[in-house]
Structure formats: C-alpha cells, structure tokens
C-alpha cells in the first residue's frame, strides 16, 4: 500500500486561495486570511483512469460538478502554513487510498452441513417458543 508520504503531487496541478478564518482567534481571525482552499486539477495529476475514478469516489462532495477538480478547504488552524500543510496532507491521503485496489468479492455458498445446522437451530428455537404458551389445567 502506498503511504501518503510517498505520494508526489505536481505543483502545476494545484492552486491555492486564502480565506478568512473562522472560530477562535478574535481580531486575528477576522482580519487575516489563514484558511486555505486547495483546488486540484485531476487531469494534471497523471493518474491511471481506474485510480482517478476511485479518487473521485473517495473525494465525494469535494469534486466539482464538471468532475475536473477537487476542492479541499482547511480552516482548522490559526496559522496559514499549518492549514496549507493540512490540506495537502488530506489530498495525499486521498490519493494514497485511491491507489489501493479493492479486493473482488468471491461468491460463496453455505455448505450442506451449515444449512442443516441453521434449520436445526430454527426448529429448536420454534419449539422453545411453542412451550411458552398458556398453561392448560
């Protein structure tokens, strides 16, 4: 499995916009643009089509309507640098998850013994319930 540290993201695929932060910080948060909005052009990442589709699926609502970009917003910290790092780390984690190909499900059938065991358990349970009826004098 590819770790987020091994993911290489080309700088030309990224564009950053800085937003006014929210939450605690008072005047500092109100006057400085510490929040980061990272826009990633998917075509510029150079990923295989299957990986790209998995990345779109993982990103979910972060994908734009035209499915060409992913937008990651981070306002968690009061520092612009740490928000930039956090946004890039989230992107790297998504790309690393997209590189993992899910295992195909193989259909299985329960064995004859398992079916019999299940039916026996149902019969026994039914008998237990039947014995709970009103007492006849």
From TrEMBL:
<dbReference type="GO" id="GO:0003747">
    <property type="term" value="F:translation release factor activity"/>
</dbReference>
<dbReference type="GO" id="GO:0043022">
    <property type="term" value="F:ribosome binding"/>
</dbReference>
<dbReference type="GO" id="GO:0072344">
    <property type="term" value="P:rescue of stalled ribosome"/>
</dbReference>
<dbReference type="GO" id="GO:0004045">
    <property type="term" value="F:peptidyl-tRNA hydrolase activity"/>
</dbReference>
<dbReference type="Pfam" id="PF00472">
    <property type="entry name" value="RF-1"/>
</dbReference>
<feature type="compositionally biased region" description="Basic residues">
    <location>
        <begin position="100"/>
        <end position="116"/>
    </location>
</feature>
<dbReference type="InterPro" id="IPR000352">
    <property type="entry name" value="Pep_chain_release_fac_I"/>
</dbReference>
<feature type="region of interest" description="Disordered">
    <location>
        <begin position="96"/>
        <end position="137"/>
    </location>
</feature>
<feature type="domain" description="Prokaryotic-type class I peptide chain release factors">
    <location>
        <begin position="6"/>
        <end position="132"/>
    </location>
</feature>
<feature type="compositionally biased region" description="Basic residues">
    <location>
        <begin position="124"/>
        <end position="137"/>
    </location>
</feature>
<protein>
    <submittedName>
        <fullName>Ribosome-associated protein</fullName>
    </submittedName>
</protein>
<dbReference type="InterPro" id="IPR045853">
    <property type="entry name" value="Pep_chain_release_fac_I_sf"/>
</dbReference>
<comment type="similarity">
    <text>Belongs to the prokaryotic/mitochondrial release factor family.</text>
</comment>
